[in-house]
């Protein structure tokens, strides 16, 4: 049986997000976020689910850190709830919210686990949304105030920092497709917000440097791969647009200082233009220490007129799928690594999310999730292939530590290495947990 060996310096970990796991939405001074509002709006989330309790990690964080410690990880990626720090997005600071994250970080450090702190994982304070949300440039100023507070509080404790998780989702899934909070369907609004999110990112990175905050700062970027159905120009261009909206649109301004021209022209064709003001691109174009790679799926695709925003349709050729209906296409991750390295040079790549939604059945206290293990085997093989090919990959984080609130899918879609009984909050280690623990301990896996 072949052995896949990983380099000794590779960082291993898992990831979560505040609204998906914390719960305690009205405790200790936390303010409302857009996800509180959205999830309590009938018809927005399956089964009427919400994050009011989630995994109750606000109260059970010590138990969750013990699970991480037993797993043997080096890094734990989590996000801070902005409205737990500033209930109204700005103004009065909430010391109890700050104290929660001190307690979490201190517990991680006590167990020898490096915190990776994400400033924004989609839970904009509702008070800021009431004033226009990310469409209002003043929200960027509020974000900088929030980031400065977090930097001041946790400087010296946190080694890895990320600004904004998956801005594609925060802009387009939330404001063009309308399936995530706040739920709008307006292309110009989505394009405006994508630009403002990038401005918030750039100004935050500049603040990080100006404050001489310790550690490394980077992104958490959506990535995907589309292999053209044929070599026809229209198929190749459609796939380029799909990859480009995920990657180029959000990384080119950061790393190259400009938006990809072909996407700018595409949006103009669709009736939307960038709201660029003087100095914006300079503000966005700040050096980052690593690119966070979030990858779940890919596909073969071709051009189809008026098929969605990008005139593209997927051609699913006998791929297995996860329970959330995403094709399993591990080779796409390998191609993403090469694409990033060729487009942006030798910036370190850190896989900040990768995982599978499966039908997890609890039987006699065990979850035998061999399908998830297979998914991880396939994608970690892609990681190894890329490393062996000379790609600078520094870490891998499995999504997720816990089954949690899966946004518009509610609690019916499980991604965790640990099974959560959402009635009792009991945590049960799945077979994938034990498998991943062995990979981390050994530094290799069998396939």
UniProtKB/TrEMBL annotation:
Which EC number(s) does UniProt give? 3.2.1.21
Show the PROSITE patterns listed in the entry: GLYCOSYL_HYDROL_F1_1
Q: Name one Pfam family in it.
A: Glyco_hydro_1
Family the entry assigns: Belongs to the glycosyl hydrolase 1 family.
Please provide the record's keywords in A-Z order. Answer: Carbohydrate metabolism, Cellulose degradation, Glycosidase, Hydrolase, Polysaccharide degradation
Origin species, per record, is: Mesobacillus campisalis
Q: Which InterPro entries does the record associate with it?
A: GH (IPR017853), Glyco_hydro_1 (IPR001360), Glyco_hydro_1_AS (IPR018120), Glyco_hydro_1_beta-glucosidase (IPR017736)
Residues of the active site: 166, 353
Task: Please list the reactions this protein catalyses.
Answer: Hydrolysis of terminal, non-reducing beta-D-glucosyl residues with release of beta-D-glucose
This chain's protein is named: Beta-glucosidase
- List residues binding substrate: 20, 121, 165, 296, 399, 406-407
């Amino acid at each position: 049986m072949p052995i896949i060996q990983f380099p000794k310096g590779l960082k291993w970990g898992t990831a979560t997000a505040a609204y998906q796991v914390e719960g305690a939405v009205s405790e200790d001074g936390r303010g409302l976020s857009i996800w509180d509002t959205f999830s309590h709006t009938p018809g927005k989330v399956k089964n009427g689910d919400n994050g009011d309790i989630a995994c109750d990690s606000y109260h059970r964080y010590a138990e969750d850190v013990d699970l991480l410690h037993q797993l043997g990880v080096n890094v734990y990626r989590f996000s801070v709830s902005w409205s737990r720090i500033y209930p109204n997005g700005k103004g009065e600071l909430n010391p109890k919210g700050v104290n929660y994250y001190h307690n979490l970080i201190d517990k991680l450090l006590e167990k020898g686990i490096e915190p990776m702190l994400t400033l924004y994982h989609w839970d904009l304070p509702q008070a800021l949304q009431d004033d226009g949300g990310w469409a209002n440039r003043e929200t960027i100023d509020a974000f900088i105030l929030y980031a400065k507070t977090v930097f001041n509080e946790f400087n010296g404790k946190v080694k890895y920092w990320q600004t904004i998780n998956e801005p594609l989702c925060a802009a387009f899934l939330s404001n063009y497709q309308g399936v995530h909070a706040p739920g709008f369907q307006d292309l110009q609004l989505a394009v405006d917000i994508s630009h403002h999110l990038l401005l918030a990112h750039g100004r935050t990175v500049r603040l990080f440097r100006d404050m001489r905050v310790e550690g490394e700062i980077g992104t958490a970027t959506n990535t995907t791969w589309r292999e053209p159905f044929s070599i026809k120009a229209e198929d190749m261009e459609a796939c380029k647009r799909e990859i480009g909206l995920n990657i180029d649109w959000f990384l080119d301004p950061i790393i190259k200082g400009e938006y990809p021209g072909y996407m700018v022209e595409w949006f103009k064709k669709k009736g939307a233009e960038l709201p660029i003001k003087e100095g914006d691109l300079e503000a966005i174009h700040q050096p980052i220490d690593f690119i966070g790679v979030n990858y779940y799926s890919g596909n073969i695709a071709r051009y189809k007129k008026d098929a969605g925003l990008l005139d593209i349709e997927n051609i699913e050729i006998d791929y297995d799928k996860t329970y959330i209906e995403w094709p399993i296409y591990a080779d796409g991750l390998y191609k993403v690594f090469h694409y990033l390295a060729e487009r942006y040079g030798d910036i370190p790549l850190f896989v900040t999310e990768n995982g599978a939604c499966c039908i997890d059945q609890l039987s006699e206290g065990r979850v035998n999730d061999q399908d998830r293990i297979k998914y991880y085997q396939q994608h970690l093989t892609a990681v190894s292939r890329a490393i062996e090919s000379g790609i600078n990959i520094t870490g891998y984080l499995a999504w997720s530590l816990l089954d949690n609130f899966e946004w518009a899918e509610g609690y019916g879609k499980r991604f965790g290495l640990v099974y959560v009984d959402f009635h009792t909050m009991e945590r049960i280690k799945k077979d994938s947990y034990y498998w991943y623990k062995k990979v981390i301990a050994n530094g290799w896996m069998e396939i």
